[in-house]
Amino acid sequence: MNADADENSPALTSGGFVMGKDGMAALVDMLVRHGFTVVGPTVRDGAIVLAELRSADELPYGWGVELEAGRYRLRERPDGAAFANSAGPQSWKPFLHPSRVREWNADRVDGELVLTADQDTPGRYAFLGVRPCDLRAIAIQDRVLTGGAYRDPVYEGRRTGALLIAVECTEPGATCFCVSMGAGPAAGPGYDLVMTEVVDEDGHRFFVRSGSREGAEILAGLPARPADPYTRRTADAAVTAAADRMGRTMPETDLRELMAATLDAPRWDDAAGRCLTCGNCTMVCPTCFCTTTEDVTDLTGDHAERWRLWDSCFDLDFSHLHGGPVRASARSRYRQWMTHKLGTWYDQFGSSGCVGCGRCIVWCPVGIDITEEAAALHDWTQSGATQESGP
Q1: Do 145 and 151 meet the contact criterion of CB atoms below 8 Å apart?
Q2: Where in the chain are the domains?
Q3: pLDDT at residue 363, as a whole number
Q4: How far apart are CA 328 and CA 391, in angstroms?
Q5: Predicted confidence band at 21 (pLDDT cuts at 50, 70, 90)?
Q6: Contact assessment for residue 243 and residue 185, using Cβ atoms and an 8 Å cutoff
Q7: Which tens digit of pLDDT belongs to each residue from 294-349?
Q8: pLDDT of residue 385
Q9: Residue 224 · residue 198 · CB < 8 Å
Q10: For 29-56, b where at least 16 C-beta lie within 10 A, e where not — what string?
């Protein structure tokens, strides 16, 4: 595909196009033919997961989800919609920032040590069905992993050239709060194509707009027609209505200041009494990025490897220094995660580290709710309670 397509292409400058399910099938077929690894949502193992797609038939047509703190269930939908479901257990993070990467290997050859750096060459991705919250999460990870002096070559190699096809949210889940974080339900910048799914008496269709020259070129090759005013209005109304149906909300306050003002709040003890320090929240979070390294060798001692692995601030060894861990208690580890995500992330990267996807709420085994904890801390500051010291 020609990334230098005419910037005045009708597909780039128009008010959008409408395509049916045949257009979605043509889109996936086109991307596969052009050598993209197409990743999108599909039903597998009782959940809507992200996986490689060979055909649009693998999309979760007719499936929705029921979410609550510590609970996730699939449910059938009578309307046959493909994207009327909330974020599943995965984000796009495992594809851009994989959980396990070999960095180098070493071999003893004729008494000499030979080091070989691994080259990560996954091919070019096309991400189909990127939610607005996850679109924001990718932008945040871009800043963290490629925006500073030390760039992550694995992330950069996978992110460069990745095609982002966003889908605006029309049916938020009970744990979604992207509106509070300014991350949805309408798609922000960064996409190549964006779609809004519409299913009504006039049929099943997608309102599609391009956000890049490459996206416009792709759109120009699909069986699509210029968008009619009714479909545009219906799509816009569905996204607007979704903003009013968020299942959760953050307190309307400066979260960075709230985190800094409540380090000694007794609420941290309450959360620690429930937290299992399992790290599920960090694994499903689309922006958590911490890693560790592990060196392994074979039994002969002639071959060794270094692997980079995901790590979590809930791991007792994460803050281990000589003499023991800095954050030994569950209280201190939970507080570190939440205050960094909502507070000190601003100091490091200029934005919040939370996009309001709600995954940490759903996949917490004991249902700890970050919005509930933030609200409790805010209530504590408003009550004028005397601060109590804590670890």
Answers
A1: yes
A2: 10-243, 255-383
A3: 96
A4: 9
A5: very high
A6: yes
A7: 999 999 889 999 999 999 999 988 888 888 888 999 999 999 999 999 999 999 99
A8: 62
A9: no
A10: ebbbeeebbbbbbbbeeebbebeebeeb
d(CA 262, CA 381): 7
The two three-digit tokens of residue 254, written as one number: 């400066």
- Taken in order 198, 203, 209, 215, the sign of the CA dihedral is positive
Residue range 153-175, pLDDT digits in tens: 999 999 998 999 999 999 999 99
- Return d(Cα 268, Cα 19) in angstroms, integer: 50
Which position has the token pair 């800094």? 260
**What is the rounded distance in angstroms from the CA atom of residue 284 to the CA atom of residue 360?**
7
CB atoms within 10 A of CB 227: 20
pLDDT at 13 over 60: no
50, 90 Cβ separation under 8 angstroms: yes
Residue 147 phi/psi, 5-degree rounding, is: -90, -5
**Rounded Cα distance, 209 and 215, in Å:** 8
Looking from the CA of 18 toward its CB, the CA atoms found within 13 Å total: 17
Q: Which pLDDT score is estimated for 14?
A: 60
| SS3 sequence of the chain | CCCCCCCCCHHHHCCCEEEEHHHHHHHHHHHHHCCCEEEEEEEECCEEEEEECCCHHHCCCCEEEEEECCEEEEEECCCCCCCCCCCCCCCCHHHHCCCEEEEEEEEEECCEEEEEECCCCCCCEEEEEECHHHHHHHHHHHHHHHCCCCCCHHHHHHHCCCEEEEECCCCCCCCCCCCCCCCCCCCCCCCCEEEEEEEECCEEEEEEEECCHHHHHHHHCCCCEECCHHHHHHHHHHHHHHHCCCCCCCCCCCHHHHHHHCCCCCHHHHHHHHCCCCCHHHHHCCCCCCEEEEEEECCCCCEEEEEEEECCCCCCCCCEECCEECCCCHHHHHHHHHHHHHHHHHHHHCCCCCCCCCHHHHCCCCCCCHHHHHHHHHHHHHHCCCCCCCC
